[in-house]
């Protein structure tokens, strides 16, 4: 079985610390948001686990490594996707990120 395809996010210099960028997985079509938290890259499904709404329209707090959903105020840790406060109790899926050929890549690796 072959490895799932990686989706190009952007060139490495286009996602600076404190910034985020959203893409769609080229195979599954899943929305993914990639965060640069203090030079480390993390990717989560771009959808709140409380209600189906895009996280990327919310506020990325680069000091606390969290993203807040603008719909109801649920917050998630960008490093692992865990819910930090109500009304969300379930984490959002985390995806792998790699740096290769001068770019940032991610993929939906769920079975």
From TrEMBL:
PROSITE patterns: RIESKE. Pfam families: Rieske. Keywords: 2Fe-2S, Iron, Iron-sulfur, Metal-binding. InterPro entries: Rieske_2Fe-2S, Rieske_2Fe-2S_sf. This is Non-heme iron oxygenase ferredoxin subunit. Signal peptide: none annotated. PANTHER family: 3-PHENYLPROPIONATE_CINNAMIC ACID DIOXYGENASE FERREDOXIN SUBUNIT, FERREDOXIN-RELATED. GO terms for molecular function: 2 iron, 2 sulfur cluster binding; metal ion binding. Residues 7-106 form the Rieske domain.
């Amino acid at each position: 079985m072959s490895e799932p395809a990686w989706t190009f996010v952007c060139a490495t210099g286009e996602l600076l610390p404190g910034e985020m960028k959203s893409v769609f997985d080229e195979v599954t079509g899943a929305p993914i948001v990639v965060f640069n938290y203090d030079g480390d890259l993390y990717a989560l499904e771009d959808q709140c686990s409380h209600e189906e709404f895009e996280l990327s329209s919310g506020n990325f707090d680069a000091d606390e490594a969290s993203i807040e959903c603008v719909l109801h105020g649920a917050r998630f840790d960008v490093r692992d996707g865990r819910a930090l406060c109500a009304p969300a109790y379930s984490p959002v899926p985390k995806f792998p990120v790699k740096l290769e050929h001068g770019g940032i890549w991610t993929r939906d690796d769920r079975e």
